[in-house]
# Entry
Amino acid sequence: MKAAIFEKPGLENLKIRHDLERPKITDHDVLIRVKMAGVNPIDHTTVSGTREIKPLPHIPGAETSGTVEECGRHVKSLKKGDRVIVYNIVFDGICDMCMSGDEMLCRNGGLLSLVANGGFAEYMAVPEKSTFKIPNEMQWELAASLPVTTLTPYHALKQAALKINEFLVIFGASGNTGMMATQFGKKMGAKVIAVSKQNWIKDFGADYIITEYDAVAEKVKDLTQGKMADVVLNSLGVQTWENSFASVGLNGRWVTFGGLTGADVKLNVQSLYSKQIKLVGCNGGTRKEMTEVIDMSKELKTRVWKKFTLDEAKEALEALFAKERDGRILLNVS
Ligand SMILES: [Zn+2]
# Structure
């Protein structure tokens, strides 16, 4: 089969090979013929080598959709031809975290595409318990945006306990996860303030748009009549830390699932306790939430900027940081 694969870290080492064997499946696995894969910053860090990965040589790709090609002997819920997406967490199902329904925190697991091969390949083998059927009418572009880009902000807003009529500020609202967070914020009944330079984010449900990153706290103050935000979602990291934290109001929640521009921030503890602010860290989402996201998928949309072929995997990863990027990047695998 064909796959994008690297033997040692570094984007320059990512090669396309045609001579790889199809992965073998066990009795409880499903062989998936990959249709479309999402391209995310996590894939870039996987290839560039800032995270520990196995096995080597390694196939990246954290966000996968496709069709079932073959089922293991004990697989009952799926059959050949079913359209599916892949829950991108490797988990054992037997530790205390898994038993509490927090598979993404599994003590013996990790991210699929880091601790196991990912989906930048024609075929991938996945346990049945990580394979989710999707409706026939769902576009592949949305399917390939559910496991990482949609599940992550959905879980984050639930962790933040976002309530009806609250003010939600989203940094990077027109980014991959931001446009999904904007839609969920609206569905959850919040007043969504999108921090973004893109006006189209209004079509995703933003009530207000703030275009100047340096003036966010000031603008949030105006929009909330001085109360400030109830929830601030910011996964952009250190560059936007000060302005995002300053935008949180009394009893507010500052939520993150990433640190794109750097993870080390300076925190004044007094500003945290005096306003009774909660800092909420989030990592992926649960399988239960994956089913909820699929249930809601008819009401969700994504914005695609560019599609690449599997042969162009390296270009797709490079394009993630293109200044002109304006929407998702996807890999059309087969
Ligand atoms: Zn576990």
